[in-house]
What does this fold into?
Amino acid sequence: MLRIENVSFGYNADTVLENIDLRIQRREHVALIGESGCGKSTLLKIIYGLMDLEQGQIFWEDEPVLGPAYNLVPGVPFMKYLSQDFDLMPFTTVSENISQYLSVFYPKELKERTQELLEMIELTDFADTKVKNLSGGQQQRVALARVLAQKPEILLLDEPFSHIDNFLKNGLRRNIFKYLKENGITCIVATHDYQDVLPFTDRVIVLKDKNVLARGNPMEIYNNPQSLYIASLFGEANSISIDILKSYANTKRKIIVYAHEFRVSENSGIPVNVKKSYPMGAYYLAMGDTDEGETLFFHAPKELQSGKKIFLNVSLETINQRLQHTPSL
Ligand SMILES: Nc1ncnc2c1ncn2[C@@H]1O[C@H](COP(=O)(O)OP(=O)(O)OP(=O)(O)O)[C@@H](O)[C@H]1O
It folds into this structure.
């Protein structure tokens, strides 16, 4: 188990993280999410032992993870950290970068493992290319293979797919997270992309204002967001008063409604004056104002002209679920 106990940290005088307590089980995959600048990368660096803590301790099983004041070479051998700058050797080949830490005393194994990882990142054809001649996304894939080659017990990933196009991203994500599970590697991934979170992680930790705002099963957090901040990390969302949703409801209590949970109707529901709609491929993301002046974001199956009057509906099932499982906003 990884134990993060009462950790506080700041750069200079500014506290970035305060009294953070986390337990992460061996083999667990955890996503760290939160707005830009909330401290996700800092927390990963702390866990890896790159920072000296003002307060608190980190343990992997019973072994303390100590900062640079205690370690000549920062970092600990059983963990690997893939930062946003990839830390590659630019003047050597893709294969050499991947196999750098593999034992040359087992050449057959070295070759097989390098080949397996090249296939996983779909760069077999680039095995002998120098890394400096690769694109940003290709370099990120090499960096991923390089940390995996070292078979860490814990892997810390900071935005690991940020430079990779959608064409490759989905397959790569499936390959990597499957590999991590099969090899029993504990993983903490800091990400802005909820598609890294929902299909692949066992637990999500939401950071805000120096603290852990929420933690739990990703789909439960998604289905029952405790605030607009949390919902917005998963997509376009609205905080809306129930008496606007259902005119017979005698309550000003607000609930979260994701944009995709609205149904557009031509004749009944909440009247909305369309302001704009953006093509998103399978749907249009539209925004419009209610008679009360609230701006709502919603999905529409077709383009809606600005100024058009439409009506929005939310199922009773969604309303009841939010009423039961989320706090009054
Ligand atoms: N080396 C540094 N020196 C001073 N302040 C820093 C340093 N690195 C980060 N910070 C500050 O610490 C805060 C947290 O930064 P961090 O990079 O951990 O956030 P993040 O959640 O990973 O952001 P993003 O999602 O944009 O990558 C930010 O306010 C940032 O400006």
